Amino acid sequence: MAFKPFDWYCQPVANGVWATAVQNALGAFTPCTTDTIVICISHLAMMGLCVYRIWITNMNFKAEKFCLRSKYYNYFLALLAGYSAAEHLFRLIMGVSVLNLEGEAGLAPFEQVNYSNARK
């Protein structure tokens, strides 16, 4: 289909569900490009913004620190963050793929990159 490193990274199936059922120019590469471009880059941008905010808060004493009204909000946000991290860890460790509609075993390399990037 394409050159070898791209085929290895995306692992498209020539006449699979993504190549036949999806009506776009990406065809069999649809889950790879969606996962890589949209999700992975969004995670990197959010991580960069969070690190920048932490750096600004620690270096500039005039910056206001975010404080919630109640500690229960903090506990709820910690529970949501823990669930999000646990879901990605479960998928990475157990090899459960959301985008695999062909019944192949294991995760494609683009999914492994995305799940390991989301853990950070």
TrEMBL record:
Lineage, uppermost ranks: Eukaryota, Viridiplantae, Streptophyta, Embryophyta, Tracheophyta
Native source organism of the sequence: Spinacia oleracea (Spinach)
Ranges that cross the membrane: 36-55, 75-94
Keyword tags: Membrane, Transmembrane, Transmembrane helix
Protein name (database record): ABC transporter C family member 1-like
Domain of life: Eukaryota
